[in-house]
């Protein structure tokens, strides 16, 4: 009944995207100090459990059931109601359960991205409430509006694998979180383990092929295009960030190379299947320069976004949507749209408005949500808790010596 090749490919792609969340945990874990390695890593791993339960209960249904042209779906498929092993997805090439699992991995990693911004400063009970509330009030509505046949999809907005639905809303939520909780009371000396950061980057880069190429949901020429564009953009961003930082600091910094790669991956995500490889190179070069500049601006403004989530994911996601609006072409993918440089002014302005709306929505809802959560349980850690964070919050230490 199902196409075994496409089904097998999508199971592999799903596994690759799942691997990105542990990769993110290593990436963030290496960037923080020794005393709070576990507290940042558990925030990624706990999302794998909590988000899976929420996705099974209501999330998948709210994103992909009903609500055509609206902001949110309905509960017709809650707890996988009516979805069995033989239930087809779309044109019937893969089972609905495979699509359910694939999209679940996106839902798991998206809120985990935010945690790098408020490293050291958020108590675990508050984070658990935040995780559930943010998925329900921010992530699920945007997934429905963009990928579930909702308002933005009906309007003609394109976002292949998550420039808006993953990176921009996570980055804007990160900025709102930073401004709400304020800065760290205890200064850190910088990354405690750059090899861990490199390991995390490698896992993220590897998983991103499933993230982007898998979003075609089948194996065809566009799958290959998205795969190649992903690698080109990541490589160009990594090198442009490396040389820009080398020029500024007089040293070729490894962390800069790694951060640039992640910025390139985030930026190409919405456009991976809709632009030429040459355009992907331009997008990657732009990501390295603009995301680096955003991080520099953040530093000058003294926003304590500890691991540069806003500069890399928020700005990268927005930049990717804008570049799609400029460089998208139906000559490479008839299912896409022509950007401004190909005569598609209407499409460009739709993408621009979509990124503005998503940015304001994610920022405002996140800030308001944290204000409410703080009335229920204290959000920010005390200075004493920051001093020995892993021991204070979890009773464990990453390193015994």
Characterization of the model:
The protein is about 70% helix and about 0% strand. It has a single domain, classed as Ammonium transporter fold. β1 and β2 form a beta hairpin. The chain has 14 helices and two strands. It has a two-stranded antiparallel sheet.
Tell me the CATH superfamily: Ammonium transporter AmtB like domains
Helix/strand order: HHEEHHHHHHHHHHHH
| Strand neighbour order, sheet with most strands | 1-2
Q: Calculate Rg over CA atoms.
A: 20 Å
Give the C-level CATH assignment: Mainly Alpha
Domain module tally: 1
* Contiguous runs where pLDDT drops below 50 for at least 5 residues: none
| CATH architecture type | Orthogonal Bundle
The name of the CATH topology is Ammonium transporter fold
Task: Give me the secondary-structure topology.
Layout: H1 4-31, H2 37-64, E1 88-89, E2 94-95, H3 96-114, H4 124-147, H5 151-155, H6 163-181, H7 194-212, H8 221-249, H9 254-268, H10 277-301, H11 309-327, H12 345-376, H13 383-387, H14 389-394
Antiparallel strand pairs: 1-2
Helix pairs in contact: 1-2, 1-3, 1-7, 2-3, 2-4, 3-4, 3-6, 4-6, 4-12, 6-11, 6-12, 7-8, 7-9, 8-9, 8-10, 9-10, 9-11, 10-11, 11-12
